[in-house]
Each structure stands twice: as structure tokens, then as C-alpha cells.
Amino acid sequence: MRTTLMAVLLGSTLLAQDALPLPANLRTEGLPPLPQSLMQDLARYGEGRGAGVLDWNKTNNSLLITTRFGEVNQLHLVAMPMGARTQLTFGQERISSGTFEPTRGDYLVYSQDVGGGEFFQLFRLDLGSRKTTLLTDGKSRNTSPLFSRDGRSLAFASTRRNGTDTDLWIMDPLQPGGARQVLEVQGGGWAPSAWSPDGRSLLVSRYLRATESELYLLDLSTGKKERISPEGQAAWGDGVFTGDGQGLYLSTDQGSEFRRLAHLDLRTRRISFLRPEIPWSIEQLELSRDGRFLAYLANEAGVSVLRIMDTRTRKDLPLPRLPKGSVGSMSWRADSRELAFTLSSAQSPSDAFSIRIADGKLLRWTCSEVGPVDPTAFVEPELVHWKAKDGLDLSGFLYRPARKAFSGPRPVIIEIHGGPEGQSRPGYLGRLNYLVNELGCALIFPNVRGSDGYGKTFLDLDNGLKREDSVQDIGALLDWIDGQPDLDRHRIMVTGGSYGGYMTLAAMTHFNDRLRCGLDVVGISNFVTFLKNTQGYRRDLRRVEYGDERDPEMRAFLTRISPATQAAKITKPMFIVQGKNDPRVPVTEATQMVEQIRRNHGPVWYLEAADEGHGFAKKKNRDIQFAAEVLFIQNHLLK
What we know:
By secondary structure, this protein is of the alpha+beta class. It has a domain at 25-47 and 373-638: 3-Layer(aba) Sandwich (Rossmann fold), CATH 3.40.50.1820. It contains 11 helices and 37 strands. It has a 9-stranded mixed sheet with strand order 1-37-36-35-34-32-33-31-30, sandwiched between helices. The chain has a 4-stranded antiparallel sheet with strand order 2-3-4-5, with no helix packed on it. The longest helix is centred in the C-terminal third of the chain and has 20 residues, at 619-638.
């Protein structure tokens, strides 16, 4: 007895010595101590970084990017492909966007929030003095900054008037005190999309839902707003003026399941479709400054396909073959002869690349480190399909561990995307490669009904009273896993963030007996309290998707299906992660779910960060979050 007691005390002492002291900004409940040895083991996978393209500098053709060399992403200049990198900002908060003054390039405007609260402020950074000047009021939410072609005016959307509606404003960044409201609106879905070449008009977009939006022309001299998208429900996006200002290139799903590349003649209002043969959605358009070349992306089953059209001949240029992955953040050089973009793939984090029009050469501008691990060991995803209960075809991306490294059926982690109008796409897993390569877990990223990229009918299949149909798609995925001999149907965990967090909680209430555990990150637990407490600029937009809780019938439905109402059904271990400053899914969604699970004697871990919002952005917090997640997986999925 004495020997056993001494062994227990010695083990406790060793555990305490190995435990990581948690910083004061993190609050935990139910978590066991995090071993420092685990943190050290995970560090190899947590030291990687990526880079994203923002803009070109007209004066010297350097490239503005974001990347992280400290806690969060900051602005950097890259002088040439694989050339010198100069860090421009050094704050403690992440920078979400940046754009140069387009004629001289002697200053730039960037946006930044505090603690993940998403009340973005605009700042001017003078490249000569490196002095930073606040351009907005320091309180409202300011988004979509957009320079006019002559650089004299900056358009942006702001909630400055009442904290809810996203009115349109214009300012001279060199004289920010003269900012003026040019369009007063109702709702949170308004934003400037493009300046006309002569600077007299703004293309304005109004987002209503994933399958419905509107386009307007705003005459800045008169303040008159004219709708230019036809009446009727359709999605209109990615509009850019043609070089002569007489038309628009845009994408729309009018008359089609997918968003097609189109041209709108502003004089006749005639719409012509330029690539009707592409059976996928067009996602992003970027027109060169001279109007000669239009770059556009097609979302082909989640894979980005880049094309560049010569607007004179309307033929696509021959381009180099890109790795299978995701492309975004396209930007044309001022001379219209080189396109920069961000590219990521399974074996490479996001990096900055460009294509020269003259010779079609692909140039790499950054080569981000993945940490002290071999990127060739990162597995490529496999596109898999299964049938829903009602026969609907569903798909997702499966990352299987190397067969030679692990024997027997592998434990499965189902990772559900947010949105809900999001899409799981093949790309770089980052830290999650540890789960595949070191723990031998198979990762499945499903695209259930309601996901983007598969047509507007598919996108609307989970709206309102159809909400739980998407949850049943996870049940169909569990059936598919049952039939896979290399996957362990007895060891399955479900996880996701934001709406994926709701799906995680809902799956745990519906399939508690088939799941080993669940990990919810900033997820919705009660739709009624979520709609009541989410920020005002988002509330009506979310009601279109989830239903209006002010209607008694819908309120009763939302209450009934909410995971907090069904918490008694969860008897398997849960881990809930939340940022205290989350403006989208407030912290109360997490705390009430923890309380309900505990009230029913369910096992639950809780991690909250006081300096984070809708997900953790700071590296020190992300390191601890991932270590806690791995410990949870080791304790409750693998054992």
C-alpha cells in the first residue's frame, strides 16, 4: 500500500513538473494539464507559415504580401521573385487587407481589428516615414477599402452611422477628416465592388444570401443609385468595369445552377455569357489596368483552375500547369503584363506566385517554411463520394495515413466546414498533418448539402426548416465509413468550426452512439440565442439562412433542433473552444452548451481565449489549442 501511494505521488509530481503553465488570457475548465513534452513534439508541425498576395507597388513592382514571423500576419514587401523581404508592420494584431495608392505607391491603406472583434479600422502607412495614421473613427466596422484609379479617393463600407447598416463612404486618405457618406442603406450586406475608370461611378453590391445578391450603379455626383442586375433571385458577384467603362465583366447564376462568366453592356443592359461550356462556378475576376486581360477562377469540384482571357479575342491564353489546390487573391501589375496570386496545395502552404503574360512563365515569389518536417510526406487528398438517405450524391476529401506506417483500420476524424455556405477544398493541412502522419488518423472533409460549389439548388437544400437534413448527411457518411475496411467505424470523432461547430454538436446529439467524441470550435448551440446576440450587421443576413426567430413557428423549430436543447443526448466526451470577443458566434453560445452538458453529467473540456474572436489567430494561443486538441484525441479517440 505504501509503495503504491509513493508511486502515485511520484507520478503526480512528474506530471506537475511536465505541465505547461497556461497564460492568463486563457481560461480552461475540465482540461487535464498539458504536458510540455507534447508541446515540444507538436512544435515541428506548428512552426510553418504561409504567405498571401495583396497588391503590387506601381513604382518598383515589388509585391505586398501578408505572412507571419511573430504571433500574427503582418505586411511585408518582396522586392522580386524569391528576393529580399521587408517587414512593414509589427503590431500584435493581425492585418486582414492592404492596398497601395495606385499612382505613386508612396503609401498604403490597411485594415486591422483588435482581439478578433472584427470591428476593422483603416490605417494609412507612409512608406517613407513608416508613420501610421488612423483613418476611421476607431469604433465602427469598416470594410472593403477600394481606391479610385487616380488614387484620390478611397471607398469603403462602414457601420459608423448606427452600428448596424453598412453605408458607403468616400475619403481622401491624405485628408481623412473629410470622409463623407455617399450612400445610406439598410442592412449589413452592402459594399463597394469597383470604381468606374473615370471615377464618377461606383459599382455597389448588396448581398442577401448565397444565392441572391444585387448590383447597383451609384452616380457620385448626384447620389442616385440605379439597379443594374435584372429583377429576380440570382447571385451576382465579382463585377469589374471593362476598360472603356461601358460594360461589366461579372459572374452570375442567372438561368444556371452555377455562376457563369458574363458581360453586361451598361447601355443596352444586355447580358452575354462568355464561357457557357464551363460546368462549374466562376469565383473571382481581376481585369488588368489596360482592360486587355481578364483573369478568372473556376471552382472545379473544389479545385481552383486559373484562366486568363484576352478581352480582344475572347480567347484564353495558354498557361503553365499549376499544382492541384487552391488559388486566390489575384492582382495585376500596373503595366498589365503580370498576374500575381496566392497558391496552396497539399504539400505546400500558401505562397505568392505570378505569371508573365509575355512568355507564360510561372514565377515563385515566396517559399514559406513548413517547419522541421518533410513536406513530401504530406498525403494528397482523395475525392470520395457517398449517397445521402434521400439518394443525393455527396462528396468530400479524404486524407488517408500511409499504409506502410500504420496497420489495421484507422481512426477517423470528420472535419465539417463552416458557412454554412462554405466548401471543403483540397489544400494544405498545416498542423493537421500531425494527426495523419504521427497519430495515423484518417481525415475526412465532407461537403454536405448546403455547401457551395455544387450549384444553387444544392446550396439551398439546408435552409430554414430543412436544417437537419444536412446533419443526416453526416449519418450517411458514417454508413459509408462502415463499409471501408481500412477505416475504424468504432473510432470516429466529429469536429468543425462556426457552422461546422453547430454541425458537430448536432451530430453528437443525433449519432452519440456511433461517435467516440466531438470537438466544437466557436459553434452555434442555440439558434434563438445566436440570432439574438450576434452582431447587428449580421443578424438579418443570418435569418435568411437559418430562419427568423421572431416567427413563433420558426422559433419553436429552431429551439427544438438546437444542440443546447438536446444536450442530454450527449454522453460521449466533448471539447468546446471559444474566443471571448467573437462577434459572429458570441461566447454565450459556448458557455451555455458547456453548462447544459455538465448539467446532464456529460464529460466536457472548455478552452476560452480572452484576446481572440471567431477562431484563434495568435500563434501562442493556436499552439496551446492544438496541443489540447491532440491530448483530447489521444485520450478519447485513440484509446
